[in-house]
Amino acid sequence: MMKMFASERRDKIIQILNNQRRVTVKELASEIGVSEATLRTDLNTMEQYGLLTRTHGGAILNNEEVNETSFIVREKKNKKEKIQIAKKAFELIEEKQCVLLDASSTALELARYIKNQPIRLTVVTTGLQTASELNQNPDITVILIGGLVTKGSSSIEGTLGLSILDYINIDMMFTSANGLSDNGLTDFNLYEVQLKKELAVKAGKIIALIDSSKIGKNSSAVFATMSQIDAIITDAPINKELTEKIESNNVDIHVGD
């Protein structure tokens, strides 16, 4: 059997749960063809996203109506907070800048907000949907980084198309993450982590768009350390202990209205 990416496995798990409502790790291992340890990690991550509930030895579907891909589910989650963050993030953008938006659902909300603003920009992105939204504004030049299209999502993963960044100066990178802790920005998809690490090196500034549900959380791998981040935009005040660690690295914190 061809090796599946994490996003493909998780979409397959949702498909199985839509049919069966309940499944064990052993059944998934037989159906998908990966180790039980890998599937336990997948199920734990999916539970964090609210896609399912872990049970002893397996999982059940949270919502009987869920039949959507992972990205669509993520896009709907905390939508009001993401819009709040997007509006605050736009305040940092200046006319004629070149900004980079990752393929996150929070960056997509920023793209939707930018689309309706009277501003001339160049936007580089790894998000197919983000590129489509921005391309509707004739004053915005959109550059889509090439690569492998992530199954069940609207993002690019891998570093195949990064050579284009040798010819572009990125003023700011707006990126979200699965978690923000004193380690920095973390994500669970190792292919996206690899790409984001490379993008972070190319950017003049890194602006983290993190809704409050992700504050204080860790995921599989770090793609930007706290010392690399220039600013964090969130929707609610961050606890005092983490705020002190963030500010000790000279990172600005902006809270959306």
Quickly list its features:
24% strand, Arc Repressor Mutant, subunit A, seven-stranded parallel β-sheet, 2 domains, Rossmann fold, alpha/beta, 257 residues, three-stranded antiparallel β-sheet, 9 helices
Write structural notes for this entry.
With 257 residues, this protein is of the alpha/beta class. It has two domains: 6-67, Arc Repressor Mutant, subunit A; 77-255, Rossmann fold (3-Layer(aba) Sandwich), CATH 3.40.50.1360. Helix content is 37%, strand content 24%. The chain is built from nine helices and 15 strands. It has helices at residues 6-20, 25-32, 36-48, 70-76, 79-90, 105-115, 128-134, 190-202, 240-248; strands at 22-24, 52-55, 58-61, 98-101, 121-125, 140-144, 148-149, 156-157, 170-175, 179-181, 184-187, 203-209, 221-225, 231-234, 252-255. A hairpin with a 6-residue loop joins strand 7 and strand 8. The longest helix is centred in the N-terminal third of the chain and has 15 residues, at 6-20. The protein is globular. Mean pLDDT is 87; it is low at 64-69.
Spell out the blueprint of helices and strands:
Layout: H1 6-20, E1 22-24, H2 25-32, H3 36-48, E2 52-55, E3 58-61, H4 70-76, H5 79-90, E4 98-101, H6 105-115, E5 121-125, H7 128-134, E6 140-144, E7 148-149, E8 156-157, E9 170-175, E10 179-181, E11 184-187, H8 190-202, E12 203-209, E13 221-225, E14 231-234, H9 240-248, E15 252-255
Parallel strand pairs: 4-5, 4-9, 5-6, 9-12, 12-14, 14-15
Antiparallel strand pairs: 1-3, 2-3, 7-8, 10-11, 11-13
